[in-house]
Design a protein that fits this description.
By secondary structure, this protein is an alpha+beta fold. Strands 1, 2, 3, 4, 5, 6, 7, 8, 9, 10 and 11 form an eleven-stranded mixed sheet that branches. Strand 5 and strand 6 form a beta hairpin. The chain starts with 13 loop residues before the first strand and ends with a strand.
């Protein structure tokens, strides 16, 4: 099994979180900031992720802890704490909301935001970030496909969606033009495929109820709606026809 899946455990609890996709225009195109989690401790050990973390009571400030305003405040705080950059909450563009499958390492419903990187130097929190790198989305996906970078499904799908953006302006304009897309996931029994709610087989895939769909997950001629990420081998295959 791909190492990205080996550390899945039972959830320790539930809550809300925020993730920030920092964008900049590089010499070869749009780049995102990815941070490597320490390999010897903590959640998602060794994975490359966007800055972010759990919403706490101070972030809520009287608003619902699972609401968008609390997530905005958490996004600002976590970015400051993890990579030392001060972002403006008003500039954050929410674009996706992730409800993890049962059995995911953390049961945190997470709002993903995008924003242009502000001025300032990166200052990495050593207890939370082992390293950071600006990468084009396609380069990160290629590293993952080669087995050289650990990504988790929300990070992978986000990179997949950004790989053709020509610039920060273009990426943010596209993200602003759409709704905040919900991703409500379920694993198959082996946790080699995650299905999202638009998929025709989402209701049938519920742990041990069904491990292998009647049609191979990545069959190009499969009929019906497909919204799933097939992770039984590299490169991963993302099917989103719905």
């Amino acid at each position: 099994m791909d190492s990205d899946l080996e550390s899945l455990t039972d959830p320790a609890g539930t809550g809300a979180a925020a993730t920030v996709v920092l964008l900049r225009d590089g010499e070869r195109g749009l780049e995102v900031l990815l941070a490597e989690r320490p390999r010897d401790r903590g959640s998602f050990a060794g994975a490359w992720v966007f800055p972010g973390g759990a919403v706490d009571e101070a972030d809520a400030a009287g608003d619902p802890i699972d609401g968008i305003e609390a997530a905005r405040r958490a996004a600002v705080r976590e970015t400051r704490e993890e990579v030392g950059l001060e972002i403006d909450a008003a500039e954050l563009v929410p674009f996706s909301h992730w409800t993890p499958p049962k059995g995911a390492q953390k049961q945190l419903t997470t709002t993903f935001f995008a924003v242009r990187v502000p001025d300032g130097e990166l200052r990495l929190a050593p207890d939370e970030v082992a390293g950071a790198e600006w990468l084009r989305p396609i380069d990160a996906l290629e590293r993952h496909a080669a087995g050289a970078m650990t990504l988790w499904p929300p990070t992978w799908v986000t990179l997949h969606g950004l790989q053709h953006a020509a610039s920060v302006d273009a990426a943010l304009a596209e993200l602003r033009s759409g709704d905040v897309r919900p991703f409500v996931g379920r694993f198959n029994e082996r946790r080699t495929t995650v299905f999202w709610q638009e998929d025709d087989e989402y209701d049938a895939v519920n742990g041990a109820e069904r491990d292998q769909p009647a049609v191979p997950d990545d069959a190009p001629d499969a009929e019906g709606r497909r919204h799933r990420l097939v992770m039984d081998r590299l490169p991963w295959v993302y099917l989103h026809r719905f």
